[in-house]
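User: I'm preparing a small set of examples for a lab meeting where we compare how different chains pack in three dimensions. I only have the primary sequence for this one, and I'd like the structure in C-alpha cell form so I can line it up with the others. Please keep the answer compact; I'll paste it straight into my notes.
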Amino acid sequence: MRSLGFIAAISLGGMVHAADRPVMPPITDAMLNDWLELGEEIETRADGDLNGDGDTDTVYVVASPDARTLRVMLSYRSEVDIGHEPAGELKLGPDPLGAAGLTIDKGVLTMRDLTGGTTALSATYRYRAVRTAERPRMRLIGLDATVYSRTYAHDGNEMSWNVATGDTITTQLKVATTGNHGYDKLHTRKFRQPVRTIYMEDTPGAEEELVRLTQAK
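Assistant: Understood. Below is the C-alpha cell output for the 217-residue chain.
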C-alpha cells in the first residue's frame, strides 16, 4: 500500500484562524479506489469524527479473493496543511458471510464481522482514536465474539470483553431440546482481566480469545 500520510493534504500557506479554517474535503470513493492494488476492492466504508477535531475521518475494508483488511484514515491539521493519515489496520477473516458493518458514533468505531460457513464466528470490535508520541493510533476498547451453528447442529460459546475496564462475560450456548430451534444460555461467568493497552494492529483473534476465555478456570 502506498504511503498515505501526505495524501489529500491541502496547503494553507500559513496559520489560519479557527473561524476561517477551510472545510476539509472527505476522502472520496475515487481516492480510495486509487489506493487499491490489483484484485482489491472496497467492501464497505464509514465516515465520521473519530479524533474529535470536527473533520471527517474514514474507515474502510479492502477485500481481495484471499484477504480482507480494515483500514482507518484520521484527519489532521497543522500550521501548513490539512489532510488524512493512516492510524491503524486490522486483518480480517477471508471468508465473510456478507460485508462487514462499520459505524462511528460519539468517537467510537464499531466493526461487526460475520465469517465462516455452517459454523459461524460473529465478532464485534470497538476502538477509540488516541495520539501516541509517534503517531495517532486506534486503541481496542471492546471485543465480543460468538461461535455458533447456523443450523443448530452443535453447541456454541459467546463472550463480551470490555478491554478498557477488564470486565468479561462468557456464556455457553446449548442447543435447545424443546420448542423451535435455538440456543439456551448456560454457565454464565463474570470476571475481570488485567487492563492492558491493545492497538488495532495487535488486536487478538476473536475466536482465539473466545476459546481462551471459555476454557479458563
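A couple of notes for your slides: The radius of gyration is 20 Å. Confidence is low (pLDDT under 50) at residues 1-18.

User: Perfect, thanks.
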